Amino acid sequence: MVTDPIADFLTRVRNAQMANHRIVEIPASNLKKRITEILYEKGYILKYKFEEDKKQGIIKIALKYDATTKLPAIQSLERISRPGLRTYAKPDEFKRVKNGLGIAIISTSKGVMTDKEAKMQNVGGEVLCNIY
What we know:
With 132 residues, this protein is α+β, with helices and mostly antiparallel strands. Helices cover 25% and strands 30% of the residues. Strand 2 (45-51) and strand 3 (58-63) form a beta hairpin.
């Protein structure tokens, strides 16, 4: 049993990129599905697919690499709020990730979204992770 499923999600993606895998499989949940959709919308992954199985389902993510340098599109995945130390922020307290080049994923009362979307909707929430 995994005590922090979001950290497990980020670690699986990070490890797959370090090993230059094209596809990574992750156990599904609604929160992980939404994080995957955000990564796709922002261009950090090529594509994704949600597959149902007898248990909870699987998320298959096709990782994105630079064509010339073979470097992964995601340079850094950092878990901010964790089960032992939750981190919450108001819209005016969001810190910029890599001077605005990266994104922070926020869990708000209006759903999971990026820091820029949360700031536009003027909602705060739990800062799940930073991605650059």
